[in-house]
């Protein structure tokens, strides 16, 4: 299947870049909720280390300060976009504070906006300093709240510009080899555009902290591209060549940070799992290959997305949940036995627009995913973490999609999130040495 199976999600993301500014509605109630729930977990009780360490990888596990690290986190793609204007910045602070108060440690967000409204990169090599300062704010604010960031560098999809914008730029300048979106991966001019973008972002000196991005451990890792597909070359050779070149380029600039691709996790045409684990035949001809792509030397950890309800439209919820269990276990097995790298499930969600949707389904599905990761972590396996798609705060309906939620408006998800944070903290021995987790998790007993 060659269409975007999450087009409804993409279209709603497009709405987020249409330039509308939204009043800060419900912010006070958001803060009130956090305070009432965790009144003794004020920011001052979260230790602010002056000398943060970089997250590292050793074999199939992440390490921080020599100790294993397992991630419970979330997606809020909109942080930079919401930091451009002063009147919307409080929502960014509120979201990061709320994440920290749920014991979450990593937030995945966009470090790109190519062309269009509030673009970071206005045209190839031309940047809007005001938007760059917004990204500076996101990083500085994340550090202040004890959150690390997984920063994505470009979109395969059209929202926020994506590879389509790069192709259009090359075409408009008379340099493009093709009008195909996939020329992003093979056009020399576009490769040069992207490399310049990567160099500019990674060497950016934060105007708030004074730290170059490549030297800032607040950044958990770089993600090369969100959900890469190159359907014009189902063999996967074109995408593989691009990934090998770009991962090496990133590492030539920044040897401090971990690097992942941003894959959906589909197995390619030569993989034996294409017919046993992929959702359907279409998934093997998208030009990506989980095993081949993730095995690239400069890729530090594998990434996988989970959207069974978008991949199957004829199955019932329980059948989808069974499939998700198989999908997660398969990728952990791959990383345990073959890739010998950690794997993070960097997006997982369930649409509230499914015909048979019931709110209780989210808690059941998310628990299924998190339980498998927890069991892997207990066995010192490669299941390194998961990031829910997506969280936001009140008064942001236009930035929402079929999967998003204000966490405290969904008590079962809120409870599950905190519960998972605490059980991962126990594995890591944080309940004895970290005041934040000691206080948070004592409330769960």
Automatic annotation (TrEMBL):
TM stretches of this protein: 20-38
Keyword Repeat: no
GO cellular component: extracellular region
Annotated GO biological process: polysaccharide catabolic process
Known catalytic reactions: Random hydrolysis of (1->4)-beta-D-mannosidic linkages in mannans, galactomannans and glucomannans
E.C. number: 3.2.1.78
Chief place where the protein resides: secreted
Compartments, record wording: Secreted
Residue ranges of every copy of the Glycoside hydrolase family domain listed in the record: 53-391
GO molecular function: mannan endo-1,4-beta-mannosidase activity
Keywords: Glycosidase, Hydrolase, Membrane, Secreted, Transmembrane, Transmembrane helix
InterPro entries assigned to the protein according to its UniProt record, in alphabetical order: GH, Glyco_hydro_5, MAN-like
UniProt record similarity statement: Belongs to the glycosyl hydrolase 5 (cellulase A) family.
Name of the molecule in the record: mannan endo-1,4-beta-mannosidase
